[in-house]
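ARCHIVE CARD
Drawer: 12
Card no.: 0347
Subject: one protein chain, sequence and derived structure
Cross-reference: see card 0346
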Amino acid sequence: MVSFKQARKLVMEKAVTLGQEIIKLDGAFGRIVAEDIHSKNPVPPFRNSAVDGYAVRSLDIKGQIGQVRLKLVAKQPAGDYYGKKIGRNQTVKVMTGAPVPPAADAVVPVEEVEEKDGYVELKCQVKSGENIREAGEDVKRGQLIIKKGTWLRTPHLGLLAACGFGKVRVYRRPRVTVLVTGNELCRPGRTLRPGKIFDSNSTILKALLETSGAELVAIKKEKDNLKSLVEAIRTASNLGEIIITSGGISVGDFDLVNEAAKQIGGERVFWKVAQKPAKPLAFYYLKRGGKPVWIFGLPGNPGAVMISFEEYVRPFIKKIQGCSDFWPEEIEATLTKAVKKKKGRLNFLRVRLENQAGSWLATPLDKQESGMISSLTLTRGIALIPAEADYLAEGEKVIVHLIEW
């Protein structure tokens, strides 16, 4: 067996990006930027009012309250442009976001002004620059706004739109086929016959992939038959770059994934990792039609599927899309209960998390076995219990990986 640390290193050594493409901004959520992006325009693009009010010259009203009458020369809503320079004791009514006329250097809010017969009287003092948003105050022309390798989220898309970008260059997404193996599997919603169990892994992997940025090509159920499994993996290798199997990866009579991957020319990078759950975890690499293909052989138990996806598959998918920050986010937390285990394998411990006065507390959950799903609904992090440890006392510190499912 390889160690957890070795296995992750071996996986990432095989990761390469799949090329780039330019896509429309409205389809770029969750994609990864393939180049540094500099703004072509300042934000805001011009001086504008931060409030509904009256644009004034602060010198006209300095030191005076209720004594200054300013002539209202125009009204300017957002989207219009008055453009003329205001003179002494003149004002222009402006709406929020409207350009501030030349020579005006402040805006008085409407609630501080009384308007009557084409003139306004002020009820307050105003300083130069007050209630004005300067051009480029948020973003300057030519400023680096998004770095290469950034995972695009809502604020990034908003910033790109505000800077005038309609398209963005991103890394291409990997195409993924899921093969769920097992003669015992029954589709949810059907009648469960003796000896059968409902297939939860198809649902789990589909949901995990939807949040990973990958493109799901197909999810197929495969029987424990070597010939059909070889053909399924061969077909999947022609359709995309990543194949994920669940089940059939251990040492039983019907664990056929290793042999099937070998028969289509897969190079086994590793099989079996010193970890619990997901000890029988395999990773294969091959070339197909000039493109790379990676095969993740995940165990059949749903808990092992979810945890191994978070620790290996999701980071790998991020990296081959060009993401610069692909590992799970780590925190340090204090155990609220003692933990016992056998030495020799790193344990992934499902925990609840609570923050008290800036420090994280990790509470181990019941039902940690790899076939159990109910505790996963309460899991907020995966605590890493070292392979060399057999006992951690309450109050000891552990590393916790935050989950993204």
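Annotation on reverse: The helical segments are 4-13, 58-61, 154-162, 201-210, 226-239, 257-263, 302-320. The domain at 330-402 is CATH 2.40.340.10 (Beta-clip).
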